[in-house]
Predict the structure.
Amino acid sequence: GAGVSQSPSNKVTEKGKDVELRCDPISGHTALYWYRQSLGQGLEFLIYFQGNSAPDKSGLPSDRFSAERTGGSVSTLTIQRTQQEDSAVYLCASSLDSGPARGYTFGSGTRLTVV
Amino acid sequence: GENVEQHPSTLSVQEGDSAVIKCTYSDSASNYFPWYKQELGKGPQLIIDIRSNVGEKKDQRIAVTLNKTAKHFSLHITETQPEDSAVYFCAASKGNSGNTPLVFGKGTRLSVIA
């Protein structure tokens, strides 16, 4: 597609339930990133997929968080047993993954509210 | 790891005036410094970036300066317009071949008053 697509745009879930957030990156972009943006805060890195390499999971805040990227394209971020502190906007970004560092293209995010 | 500090957290300017946002970074190996603009309900959008081999870059009304010795970089917006109102984020990374995750500042909410 023309841009990074995320779904759903909004998600309200009950505490303790599992949620899945989806990201469809720009076609041909081999790098994919997940960030979390809490109210009034900056963007917190969660996980990074680079081509066929093992993902960089160093930013995941707990073992309740996991992500996968199937076929080098679509990615799903899963949060198990959601807690109220998981409420945030979850942003996905993609970029070309060759040559020098370059900026990302972000999606519009999924706003997650845990009640 | 890298730490990026951004100031101020909020900034109000009169339309037509200039706005300056400053960031510092901690890792001297960082070599790529993008700036993002985030409008309400949207994802951040890249507006300008600078690499460590240059000291300044301009694109119409926006410019970024980099001081590697002091490890700080700044965003300058001249002749501000109401549509410049948004949250601006600075970031840093040290990617060479391929990318490493960007580390972001906490953002600056810019309000341009007509």
Remarks:
- Chain B touches chain A at residues 6, 31-32, 34, 36, 41-46, 49, 51, 89, 91, 93-107 (CB under 8 Å).
- Chain B is about 0% helix and 55% strand.
- Residues 63 and 104 of chain B are 19 Å apart (CA to CA).
- The mean pLDDT of chain B is 93.
